[in-house]
Each structure stands twice: as structure tokens, then as C-alpha cells.
Amino acid sequence: MSISESIKNFIKWIQAFDNRILQNEYDVETKFVLPMFQYLGYPDKCRQSKYPLKRSNSEISEKKLEIALIYFATDNLIKQNADTSLIIVICLEPHTTNFQQAIEQAKFYSKYLNPILFLITNGYHINVFKHHHYHTEESTFDININLLINHDVGSDFYNKLSFDSLKNFDKNVNKVSRYTKINLLEKSIKYHSNLNANLATTDFQPSINQEGNHLIVVKSKVLIECNLPKAFSDGNCNIQFSSLILRGLKINLNHKYILGKLTTGLNTQPHWGCRQFIKQLDNNIFEIFLGQTTIILSELETLELCFCIDIVCREYKNSIIDFETTLETWKFEFVDIFGIRGFHLFSVDSKLWDLMQRFANKFNYAQGKSEWHLFHQEDISIRVSRGIRDRAFIFPKNDADITHIIYEINDTHLQFLERGDTSWRQEIGPLGIWTAKYTKQWLLEKYIPKVLDYYSQQFKLSKEELLKSLEKYQCELTPIEKINDIKELIPYLHDIQSWLNIYFENIATSVLHAYYRAFTDLVRNTDSSVTGIDYITGNLRRVEWGNAPEKFSHNSIDWTNWNFKDAINCLDRQIARLNTCEYENSLKADLITRTFIWIIENGKICFSQAQLNAAKQALLPLWEQTRFEMRHVSPNR
Predict the structure, then answer these.
(1) How many CA atoms lie within 13 A of 177 on its CB side?
(2) Three-class secondary structure of residue 1 per DSSP
(3) Contact 396/405 with Cβ under 8 angstroms?
(4) Higher pLDDT among residues 222 and 79, named by residue
(5) SS3 sequence of 365-422
(6) 19-28, 104-113, 584-593 — which is least confidently predicted?
(7) What would the mean pLDDT of 64-93 be, rounded to a whole number?
(8) Cα–Cα distance measured from residue 126 to residue 116, given in angstroms and rounded to the nearest whole number
């Protein structure tokens, strides 16, 4: 059917439509909107009646959070998202004359779904707006449906709203065009001498200043003011721009967004695809997602933004890493219970916890001077304290007959961080504030045995019964620097593989160079009879296919006769390739890591101490990055 025939059928349907049959909002949807969009060429499978969105905007009530229809460019449910959305349709009661509330609702949803158009109708009148991500929406149609009977009006309506017209619309082209106009406007204004002097003074003066946990990083186009996190208290930051168009815009980002979006891909170029908040639109144009705000920046502005973020996020990460390392909390699960933050050390029978707390209350530091009078009276927790110096705060989390022992991060820890220097570390230790590791050791080796001995005769307790549920967890991993058995590398490699498996962005090759090289050398002299050669070569073929799929047609390579030597040759090619690349796809790094794991788990490997040492040295920084991101970044994505 030609376009002209489609338009004729559409107009013919409009002519025959009698809106007096519309009695309510449901009729508007089913008897008017659905047939109209069928005549506009939209497949039913490209439509959703509901779409999951966060209902966090206090200005939009629950009643108003109703979308009648959303049309997408694809019938694939998985791909029906903001990238493929075409038009939002809101249906009103037939006699409604106030469209403003529905327009505000459509604008709210457009922030998330990013449609090309949104349409509001009561079956008598139609309002159509073109959605712009960076400026006010544009009214396209504001007409009574009877006017669509006119051939010219009906044809114009059809051509602008039909499925064929919208499905191939490139949203990025519109964004780039919008940015080009803004850029030309700014350049034109700067060209005028009477304005140029004033505009020249708008750039920020570059500087880096830090006082305590307050950090300000400034480049000529970007300023970031950040409150760094203290211990596990939340930080935040404020971003400003000096450009004529963005001047006055202040973007506030919270702790969750900084960790979940900004701290990955540090020290990488914007066009590498390593940063989650950046999308390249053109050679020198980038779309930037900062919280609920989306802006378009030039290459210079984007580079300066990345520079400032790198400095801020490096300090942000260091603040968290320093605290965890000093208090030896990395090996324990972080918990937040009713605003109490801490780390789960182990679990005990609830009856044993009751005795532990009873002992602490009896041996209050103010009621005696024995070596065990070192507790401060508390309600439900145990506070190890001599009155003038607190050692540790131990909080219980009850779960049926089990009590989980929590090492609490208290204001006592935070008051040392208020100093704004590094002297607080000197307060940590057996004679000062206890670390999580020391606290667990003291509880298991000294306190609990003392409590059991003290009450065993009085209550005729069965120590075995009380201790049977004591969870001491699995044996700790051998520190990387102390590993001498190649098998002890496997848990660390599994951690890295798990991280790579959920990683979305590309990874700078500088992070992987030493890792690929050292582990390839480590497994190079593996017995060729290693089991699972099909698994090894299968992983590596997927890597090679991703590198150059045109070279790996089924007729150009014998897929069945790869052996271990071929696998090593493939790994060597990946090392050589990384020397010519700036970034690596995380899936390839995942597949190569799976290969290393399999070879070490199943192969007989002949290696030297130098090869093992090189592997450990390369593994450590990558695993530490993995540990931080799995603990602090992934939960906040």
C-alpha cells in the first residue's frame, strides 16, 4: 500500500468517526486512539499500556502517574526503552478541557522515556508536542479532530506522526543539531567586541583546594565542590559550568551517584567508552548524564569535566579505602541497621550473647579495677571502654536463635576524622580504638572463653551447646604477597571474573597489560593434555571473533583442531593487541580470565618463582580495584 493510499484511508476513517460514542477515558483509548494509531501504521506489538518508572517525583500524584499508551520503534520487549521510544499518548475524559495537568505528566515521563513526541487527547481535541531534551517542548499540533478531514491537514498529521516517519528518526542527530545551534550562538556573541570582554571574564580560574574533607577542583569550564565521605558517612558534590549557555546551572550529586556512576573509568578519555555517564554523539560532542540532569558538552568541556571528576573521585575513593584499611574491615560484610553502620564479625547462639552482655554489665569499669572491668553500661550493645577511652562498640542483630555480632562504626571513630589530617590513624590499635579484625580476635579468643568460664558453674552450662552455632566463617585467603601455591591464586581470579562479568563499560588497557602478560607467562608451560581444551579454546575464539569477525568465517579456520599451543598463541596475540589499543571490552577480559582460571584449576603447570612473583604483582592492583568496585560501586549502580 502506497503512502498516498495510507493517508486516504486515515482521512476516510477520521471522516467516519463519531466521537459521540466516547463516554469515558477508556473509550477514548480503545475506540479512538488505538484505531487511529493502527491507521498510522503502528504494530500492536510496539505498544505498551504500562511502563515501570520510579515514582519519586513529589509533584506528580499517584493518580496522575498513569500512561495510557507508549509506542516504540521495535516489537522486542527487551529493547523497548528510552532509546527506542517514539510517542507517549495520554487519554483524557471526553469532556475534559484542561489539558495542562496531562501535559505536565507527559513532560515528567518524557524525562525518563525520551520520546520524539507526546500526544494528549480527549477524543475531540488533539495536542501534540515535540520533546526536546535540552529545551522547552515544541507544539506541533493543537487542533480539533474534525480539521483532520482536510486533505492537507490530515496529510501533514499523518506524515509527522506515522510509524514509518518516526521509527527511523535519529535522536542523536537532533541532539547534535541542537548543540551546533547553541555553539554557533555562543561563538557569534563572542564575535561582538562589546560582549567579548565581558564573556572572557566568565571562565573559572583553575585551582585545587582542600580543607579537611572539603575539596574544590576548578578548570576554566568546570567547577566541582565536594564533601568527601568521612568513614562511611555519605559525601556529595556540586558541579557548575562557566559557559554562556550553562552558566547558573548547579548540579547536585549524592553519595550513591558519585560511587555508582562517576568512580569508574577514571583517567580515561571520554571517547573510549569507559565512563558510564558519558555518551559520544559526534566527533567533538558528548552527552553527559549527571543525576537527573542531561547536558551536551563540547570536547574541551568534557575533557575538563573528566579531569575534575578524576581528582574528586580519586580522593573520594582514597577516603573510603584509607578508612577500611586502617580499621581492617575489608574482610567483613558491611551492614546498615536502623542507621547503625558497622561490619558483621560472626554469629553466636542468642543465649551466649545474653551471657556476654550480662558479663559486660556486671564488670562496669566504674565498679572495679580488675583487668575485666572495662565496660561502659549500655542498653543492648557492649561498649568496651575505660571511661576516658573507648575501644570498641559491639552491636547485636537478632535473628531467631542466632545473634549476629556487629562491629559498630560510632561517632567516636568519626571525631578523629574531623581533624582533617592523618593523625587519627595513630589512635587505632590495641591501646586505642580497636580494629574490626582485632575486635573479632579478642571476642573469640579472650572474651567468650572468659564469659563461659565465669558462668559455667553458676548456670551449669554446656559449653559445647552454646558454641555449636558459633560461626567462625571460612578460612581467610592467603594474602597475595604471601602466596607460594599457584592454586591460591584461584579465589582472587574468581573475584576478578565476577567483577568483569557485571561490568558494563570498556576498561583502559593500562589496567590489563601486566595482568594479561604475567598470567600468560605463568600458564605457558602447561601440560598439553590439560582437560577441557574445548572450553579454553572456545573462550579464546570468542575473543578473536570479537576482535576481527570478518577473518573468522566458518570456511577460513578449522575450529575443531585447536590445541593448547594454539591457545597460548592466541593469548600472546591478545597481549600484542593491547599494546596497540587504548581500551578493552570487559567481555573479552572476562573470557580471558575464565581461561586463566580453568588452566590453573585443571592443568599441570611448570612455572618458576619469578613467573609466580610477576603474576602476584600484576594481580594485586587489579584485585584491589575489583574489591573496591564490588563493595562500593556495584551496590550503588
Answers:
(1) 6
(2) coil
(3) yes
(4) 222
(5) HHHCCCCCCCEECCCCCEEEECCCCEEEEEEEEEECCEEEEEEECCHHHHHHHCCCCC
(6) 104-113
(7) 84
(8) 16
Predicted local confidence at residue 59, as pLDDT: 41
DSSP state of 151: H
Grid cell of 501 as nine digits: 562479568
Residue 183: enclosing H or E segment and its boundaries? helix 171-191
Higher pLDDT, 171 or 561: 561
Residue 248 is predicted with a pLDDT of: 85
Task: Please state, in angstroms and as integers, the Cα–Cα distance from residue 515 to each residue in 275, 384, 511, 595, following that order.
Answer: 21, 44, 8, 13
> Phi, psi at residue 208, to the nearest 5°?
-135, 120
Give 611's pLDDT tier (boundaries 50, 70, 90): very high
Q: Which of 184, 185, 170 is nearest to 281 (CA)?
A: 170
Return d(Cα 361, Cα 376) in angstroms, integer: 8
Burial class of residue 114 in the structure, from the number of CB atoms within 10 Å of its CB (0-12 exposed, 13-18 middle, 19+ buried): middle
Burial (Cβ within 10 Å: 0-12, 13-18, ≥19) of residue 63: exposed
Note whether 348 and 403 are within 8 A (CB). yes
**DSSP assignment of 526-589, as one string?**
B-TT-S-HHHHHHHHHHHHHHH-GGG--TTTS-TT---HHHHHHHHHHHHHHHTT-SEE-HHHH
Q: Which of 101, 110, 117, 119 is nearest to 60 (CA)?
A: 101
Please give the Cα distance from 453 to 137 (Å, whole number).
76
pLDDT at 135: 57
Residue of 47 and 559 predicted with greater confidence: 47
Q: Please report which helix (H) or strand (E) contains residue 9, including its range.
A: helix 3-16
The cell numbers describing 356, all together, are 556476654
Judge whether residue 187 has pLDDT over 70.
Answer: no
**Minimum mean pLDDT among 119-128, 210-219, 232-241, 368-377: which range?**
368-377
Are 567 and 602 in contact, with CB atoms under 8 Å apart? Answer: no
Nearest to 214 by CA among 201, 203, 224, 202: 224
Cell of 517: 602478560
> 493 by DSSP, 3-state: which?
helix
Q: How many CB atoms lie within 10 A of CB 610?
A: 9
> Region 153-169: what's the mean pLDDT?
90
Res. 385 pLDDT band, cuts 50 70 90: confident
The per-residue pLDDT for 321 is: 93
Number of other CB atoms surrounding residue 271 within 10 Å: 16
* Sign of the Cα pseudo-torsion (240, 245, 248, 251, in order): negative
Distance between CA atoms of residues 288 and 249, nearest Å: 14
How far separated are the first and last CA of the chain, in Å rounded?
47
Kindly tell me if the per-residue pLDDT of 238 is higher than 80. yes
- Are 408 and 396 within 8 A, CB to CB? no
The overall average pLDDT reported for the chain is 85
Burial track 574-585 (b if 16+ CB lie within 10 A, e otherwise): beebbeeeebbb
> Do residues 206 and 218 touch, judged by C-beta distance below 8 A?
yes
Pairing of strands 293-298, 333-337: unpaired
What is each CA distance from 633 to 53, 344, 627, 637, in whole angstroms? Answer: 23, 20, 10, 6
Amino acid at 171: K
